[in-house]
Design brief:
This protein has 430 residues and is α/β, with parallel strands linked by helices. The chain has a seven-stranded parallel β-sheet, with helices on both faces. Strands 10-9-8-11-12-13 form a six-stranded parallel β-sheet, sandwiched between helices. Helix 1 packs across helix 17 and helix 14 crosses helix 16.
Length: 430
């Protein structure tokens, strides 16, 4: 199997999508007889770094770094002119335009992405359906069942829509310290209960809830790790003495010390990232949290529920409810066996969510597709023209009012918290 990986943004970078793509590519390389990475690079040093990240030769895309739209177009044009493009058995990409151009040039394509594009940019729905029903389109690897269902609604064959969840690198967590020892390293009182969030600190993550919870739990310390400066969340936290906004940690070793110190690892229990911004569908931190072996507190939301089960491997509370969050934190820090039991279960479950496990499953999918006749899956159950018009109208209104190209995904309110309303935290013996 010969794979040409095509990434449209310069490497390395700190974005989660870059981590997903490079980690998946690096672990797919052992399954390929030949592999190349096509990526824009500003100089030789960046090309060498990209090669180190993925473990394969880098083909420098002839593309300007800015603006992004022009870079994506130029990457696709540069890709099809390569000799390796003709040698490869397939192009593996996360960019819709690169996928479309590669198909038009006669190549087979595997597409790997987390966003529910049919919901977020409705005018593209017919274009996406036509592309993914092409016989040379091998598979769309979605990162969640939530996103997969959005493509199924377009009438795309189930054979071409496969959910393979993301993962983490267990080596990042080797030699973890006990919480008390890690706290001492960070200058924190070992006896103080510590709640840790890692990831970008901005208004899209629901972190306002964490700040409000901190006000009601003054004896707990909240560490928000991932600050880039003085944003709105930092401003909210400035006068709350038990909240610390920690700068973004650029190395895994630096980040790990905060995971080590956590009594609770927090995924802000909010629908905002999914329903309002559509920027996150199952946050990548979730898998690293599981591997850290600390109790996890998150929201009972449709995407998170795919991986975490309330009372089994995490505590899930009602979204966007400060009281529920406070009760959840208290349940995990009151010294009962609950926290230890949930942490042990999530650690055991994490073994199924490594990058190597993800790559092995994707490799088997690709090999099966390449070894069989092309899947002829004409678009069926096409949505009525009026539905497409209505979705596109909503998108145009959203674009004008909010100056945002991405329409928030549709979320069924009845499916948000099937048993969350009024639910109490599991008992320590439960």
């Amino acid at each position: 199997m010969k794979i040409l990986f095509a990434f449209e943004n310069p490497l390395p970078n700190a974005e989660a999508d870059a981590e997903v793509f490079t980690a998946t590519a690096r672990h797919l390389v052992p399954f390929a007889s030949h592999a190349w990475l096509h990526v824009p690079a500003s100089d030789t040093a960046h090309g060498e770094l990209a090669a180190a990240l993925t473990g394969m030769p880098v083909l420098r895309a002839h593309a300007p770094l800015r603006p992004a739209a022009l870079r994506h177009l130029a990457c696709s044009a540069s890709l099809v002119s390569r000799r390796e493009f003709r040698q490869a058995d397939l192009v593996y990409t996360r960019n819709l335009w690169i996928a479309r151009v590669a198909l038009s040039a006669g190549q087979r394509v595997a597409f790997d992405h987390y966003r529910p594009w049919p919901d977020q940019i409705p005018p593209l729905r017919p274009w996406i359906r036509t592309m993914m029903c092409n016989p040379r389109f091998l598979a769309h690897i979605t990162h969640s069942e939530y996103t997969r269902t959005r493509y199924l609604e377009l009438g795309i064959s189930t054979d071409k829509l496969i959910c393979v969840h993301n993962g983490f690198d267990p080596r990042r967590l080797e030699g973890m310290l006990a919480p008390a020892e890690a706290k001492r390293h960070l200058g924190i009182d070992p006896a103080r209960k510590t709640i840790v969030y890692t990831g970008r600190i901005n208004h899209k993550k629901g972190l306002e809830l964490a700040v409000e919870a901190a006000k009601r739990l003054p004896d707990h310390l909240f560490l928000l790790v991932g600050s880039y400066g003085n944003g709105p969340i930092e401003a909210l936290a400035r006068d709350v003495p038990n909240v610390r906004a920690i700068p973004w940690q650029h190395s895994p070793e630096a980040l790990r010390q905060y995971l080590d110190a956590a009594d609770v690892l927090l995924i802000p229990p909010s629908m905002k990232p999914l329903a309002e911004f559509g920027s996150t569908v199952i946050p990548l931190k979730l898998y690293l949290y599981m591997g850290a072996g600390r109790p996890i507190l998150g929201g009972d939301t449709p995407d998170v529920r795919e991986i975490l089960e309330d009372g089994r491997n995490a505590l899930l509370c009602r979204p966007d409810n400060v009281e529920a969050l406070v009760h959840g934190i208290a349940a995990l820090t009151d010294g009962s066996p609950l926290a230890q039991r949930l942490a042990a279960r999530s650690l055991a479950d994490s073994r199924a969510f490594t990058w190597s496990a993800r790559a092995a499953r994707i490799a088997s999918i690709l090999e099966a597709r390449l070894g069989s006749a092309p899947i002829a899956s004409p678009a069926r159950n096409r949505e009525p023209f009026g539905t497409w018009v209505e979705q596109s109208r909503r998108w145009v209104i959203h674009l004008i009012r909010n100056r945002s190209w991405l329409l928030p995904p549709r979320v069924d309110a009845a499916a948000l918290t099937p048993a969350a309303a009024g639910r109490q935290p599991p008992s320590a013996s439960g």
